[in-house]
User: Which sequence fits this backbone?
């Protein structure tokens, strides 16, 4: 079987605030607006969707990780628009050999922006 893609879906109480964060702040293109769900394309592979009808899917314990070679650039972009959501500046994590930072989206999900160091 040939898989042609991946969409990970998460709950959102506010699709407009979610759209502002993922589209305007992080720069992800809106792939499909289905009314109760919006799906964003992660260039390089995959999609992330937010829907109003998954109330049982809550943010506790979940991390959405976006990969980029431009972690510092992403950090500056996010800080310029939504500084209050950034948890700390980018740092190296020697255990996992990554460079990353965390922030929170409007739904309370922890979002990690990272690059692999090898």
Assistant:
């Amino acid at each position: 079987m040939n898989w042609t893609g991946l969409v990970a879906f998460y709950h959102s109480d506010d699709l407009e605030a979610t759209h502002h964060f993922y589209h305007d702040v992080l720069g992800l293109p809106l792939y499909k607006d289905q009314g109760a769900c919006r799906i964003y394309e992660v260039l390089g592979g995959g999609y992330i969707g937010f829907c109003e009808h998954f109330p049982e899917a809550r943010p506790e314990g979940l991390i959405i990780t976006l990969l980029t070679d431009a972690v510092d650039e992403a950090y500056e972009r996010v800080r310029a628009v939504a500084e209050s959501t950034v948890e700390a500046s980018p740092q190296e994590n020697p255990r996992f050999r990554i460079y990353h930072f965390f922030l929170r989206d409007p739904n309370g999900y922890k979002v990690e922006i990272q690059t692999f160091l090898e």
Q: What stands out?
A: Strands lie at 7-11, 30-33, 37-41, 47-51, 63-67, 91-93, 98-104, 110-116. Residues 71-82 form the longest helix (12 residues). The first strand starts at residue 7 and ends at 11. Helices lie at 15-25, 71-82.
